[in-house]
Write a structure and sequence with these properties.
The protein is mostly helical. It has one domain: Cytochrome Bc1 Complex, Chain D, domain 2 (Orthogonal Bundle), CATH 1.10.760. It is built from 9 helices and 4 strands. A two-stranded parallel sheet has the order 1-2. It has a two-stranded antiparallel sheet with strand order 3-4. Helix 2 packs across helix 6 and helix 5 packs across helix 6. The longest helix is centred in the first third of the chain and has 18 residues. The protein starts with a helix and ends with a strand.
Amino acid sequence: MRQIAATLAVWAVALAGQAHGQSVWEGVYTNEQADRGKVVYDQSCGSCHGAVLSGGETAPPLAGGEFLSSWNGLTAGDLVERIRTTMPFETPGSLSRESVTNVVTFIFRFNGFPAGPKELDKRAEMQKQIRIEPAPAKGDLKNPPSPWNLFTPRALYASSYQPLHIRSEKTLSARRCALRWYSCPGAGAWSCCL
């Protein structure tokens, strides 16, 4: 009987922890931290994963629908740990936890997750509380991202994955064009269709 009670107590604590976790949509990093991450990404990751995080022959994309579906339901801590222990390909484990945390914030920014007032904590136990998930329904965000951020060439190249409430005729008209993506060997390009 005590084992059952202990098991239920552990489950209750685990579920309570999950309920109070954060989402990547709640501004879990700063732009300054993502800027530092871009520097590390360009030096250590970009040669395989590409300048626009689209992946390569042996490297998976770090932006867009494929990335988001692969990491949906996992945590920032899971992503940091995977990168920290397996990357860079030539010298796995050579980057510090702080450097990898900064790279992850750059990946978050590139994928359109909003920045906030506090840096992403480099401690694994704190990162494990931040869920990677699709955009919440309209009205579910504490600090919704600007719709303009989702219509940058970088964001559109990364994916056609944007919340439907952002893709509106009004928003497209305000930009005076609908952006259409096509692939070029080794690079992305965009055109404005009037």
